[in-house]
Design goal:
Layout: H1 2-8, E1 16-21, H2 31-41, E2 53-58, H3 66-79, E3 83-88, H4 98-107, H5 112-115, E4 125-130, E5 136-140, H6 141-145, E6 148-154, H7 169-176, H8 179-187, H9 194-208, E7 211-219, E8 225-231, H10 236-250, E9 258-264, H11 278-281, E10 294-300, E11 319-321, H12 322-326, H13 330-340, E12 350-352, H14 355-364, E13 376-379, E14 387-391, H15 392-396, E15 404-411
Parallel strand pairs: 2-3, 2-6, 6-7, 9-10, 9-13, 10-11, 11-12
Antiparallel strand pairs: 1-14, 1-15, 4-5, 7-8, 13-14
Length: 423
Amino acid sequence: MSAINEILDEIQIPKVTKVKQSFDKTKLEDVEGTLHKLLIQKNVKDKIKKDLKIAITGGSREISNYKELMKIVVDFVKENGGHPFIVPSMGSHGGGAAKGQEKMLEKLGITEKSVGAPILSSMEVVEIGKTEKEIPVYIDKNAYEADGIILLNRIKMHTSFRGEYESGLVKMLAIGLAKRKGADMTHSLRYENMAKNIVAVGKVGIEKLNIICGIATIENGYDEVAEIFVLHKEEILKEEPKILQKSIKLMPQIYLDNIDVLIVKEIGKNISGTGMDTNIIGRFHTNAASGGPNTIKLGLLNLSYKSDGNGNGMGLADFISKKFYNKLDLEATYLNAITSTEPNSVKLPVVLDNDKYVFKACVKICGKRNIEDIKLVIIDNTKNLEEVYMSCAAIKNIMKKEKVEIIGEYFEIKFDRYGNYTI
């Protein structure tokens, strides 16, 4: 790409400084102790009889304290005479394969050794009923054959649609635990109807299955557990929308209405279903969601190891680096898009030789001729937003200056001899 690089070599990048953003600090100090106490208070033990096989859902997101939460649930089941096992509950993720889904859990720290329960990974499903719109409802075969199911998930805003229920227990039941075939059915009417679909499918699951309880967490803007909820089966539909609203109030953000250039160092399925939280970056691949800042140009530098080659979300960017491209598993990526019915999220952006040219390309076409006017923001990923880097123009346009602390002086962005960003 010598001709392209020659053009971009002339482009200057604005200087930046480190910025510390502050968010709601609500934090649960004793996560494990609180969960154990809630399981006792809610009399969950009454539903776990001796020698019953209990399935516990394991999703693909990097939930805070995930391994510790899972182990508490496993131990609690054992304490009350049950035989727990983990069911990968992630729809079509992991390449839509049993081994791939088990591998995703392993990358999140969930293994038989770490939590004390076997992982039964299969893509086999059982049809348990139909919704009012005649959508078949499927459930993982191992979970269906268990004597009871414990739903474990984080509740937060979804990246692709809006509704009373977004990412949480109902979605885990309707999509995650339904494996690829069930996820395909629930997505079949597209994201514009997803809010209604997951409720319809979830209601069938709640009615037909022996759900022991639902365990939900919400997180603060520092990727820490803020609160835990243990819900009886009959409480899930009533309480989850209230928990979602609490979660939304705790969300982190970039304190700008407009961003000329946003550089994201890493995306991946472990970070968000769309690789990066669309609510943070202000770019969406569906018409069923909106919000966040107006981002003019977006560059991605790397794909996380834990994403296992799934580049879902790259379609929202304008440029990616060659190292990002080289990590792509296109089959896993495209399977995710086809299952979710939205190929916009996996369309290939312009691939450039290295990080330096991703920066320079975004700057060149962001619509600002004067380098001093360019609002540049650099983030690690959309989960870690406490420390970011901003240009002078970006800092001047911060909405909530009381929430931001400037650390140090402005400096030029550095790249190594291979063109990799070095901060």
